[in-house]
Amino acid sequence: MPDVSSLLSWSPVALVGAVGRVLALGERFLATTDEAERLTVLVAHIGPGSSLAELIATLASARPSGIAVLGNADSTYAAALALHDGTLVGATGTRPLESLAEFTLEFQRRASGSAIEGSAELDPTRTFVTETALEALRRCEGAGASFALVQGGLHWLDDRLADGNAPSLDHLLLEHARRSDELPRIVAKIGATDRVIVPLAVPGERAARPTQARLLADESESGWDFFDDPDPAAEAEWRDARRVFELCDGMSTIDDVVERSMLGRFRTLSAMLALVERSHIAFMAHFAGCDEPAASDSDQLLESLDDVG
User: Fold this and answer.
1) Is residue 199 classed as helix, strand or coil in its secondary structure?
2) Is 262 left (phi over 0), alpha (psi -120 to 50) or beta?
3) Is residue 161 a contact partner of residue 126, using CB atoms and an 8 Å limit?
């Protein structure tokens, strides 16, 4: 019968140290254990036609506690998720800013100079854990991905969320399904992401009705219909938009702002779509060595300026 270390060799994690009592993901130490031989390990390989999300949904019904590790097919990406009674209390990756403490410090540093009231109210701890888990699901959702669940006497080494602030696995899976459906529509509306964002008008505390008669890449209706009586989720989405607006300096591209926002690609692009539909920003083509925008982009910018007076 294979031991724990042999089983974990089929996954991105390993037991390291002189006596094999530290669970590690690459160079990142995840947890310690007093009795490695008492750990329970489930390792799975996702085959063609199978779904990592479906496997996690099956496990979620048991409200597991432990550490789940997801890896993509070519072993270039992996993330670890700390679980407690079916909720997500921690997460970590292998790259810079992929731990809760590092991310929170940098998030707060970038928000410290915010000029828009309320834009600094975003919760960086829940943001990091949720977005890390959703990014892991997105990048590992395909044939060849790996999954490991380690349970037993583990002591998570990184910071963790309070139990009352931790999202459930059920919420995570529903959000993953929603984003999988909506992201292609948002990307189609945004268009090329190498364009520069031009700020036009500072967004207020509440979202206004869309002003753009012509949307970016299609004629679909806006998905942000929350201006009459916004619920807490809608208000949180508008805070995303206000934070994203502050990063639009007339020189940064869409890709630049996605990287700098620390909100994840889906939330940042959704925020941009809401802003551009309400004429708070406009997108301009970016040409290396050329300061003049294309004529069509100039027309769009003039229309946007007319909309905001």
Assistant:
1) strand
2) left
3) yes
C-alpha of 292 from chain center: 34
The pair of structure tokens assigned to 204 is: 């207020």
Q: What are the structure tokens assigned to 131, written together?
A: 């977005």
Using the 8-state DSSP alphabet, how is residue 99 labeled? B
Residue 22 amino acid letter: V
**227 plus 151 within the same structural domain:** no
Last residue of a domain, one of 150, 180, 210: 180
d(CA 47, CA 45): 6
pLDDT score at 285: 75
pTM over 0.90: no
**Among 264, 259, 297, 260, which residue's Cα sits nearest to residue 281?**
297
* Structure tokens that stand for 35 in this block: 């009795």
**Token representation of residue 291:** 């300061």
Mention every residue, 6+ apart, whose C-beta is less than 8 A from residue 258.
193, 265, 268, 269
Are residue 197 and residue 169 in the same domain, yes or no?
no
Q: Which residue range(s) make up the domain with 246?
A: 191-307
Same domain? 22 vs 86: yes
Sheet with 22-25, side-by-side order of all strands = 13-16, 22-25, 28-33, 154-156
* 3-state DSSP assignment of residue 38: helix
Residue 129 and residue 243 in one domain:
no
Neighbour order of strands in the sheet with 78-84: 40-45, 146-151, 66-71, 78-84, 87-92
d(Cα 300, Cα 309) in Å, to the nearest integer?
14
In this predicted model, what pLDDT tens digit does every residue of 104-149 receive, in sequence order?
999 988 877 666 555 556 789 999 999 999 999 999 988 999 999 9
**For residue 20, which of 43, 41, 49 has the smallest C-alpha distance?**
41
Backbone dihedral angles phi then psi of residue 159, each to the nearest 5 degrees: -60, 160
Task: Say which range, 4-8, 87-91, 215-219, 242-246, has the weakest mean pLDDT.
Answer: 215-219
- Taking only the tens place, the pLDDT of each residue in 282-302 is 999 755 544 444 445 545 555
- Segment (H or E) for 258: helix 254-261
Q: Which residue has the tokens 């270390």?
A: 5
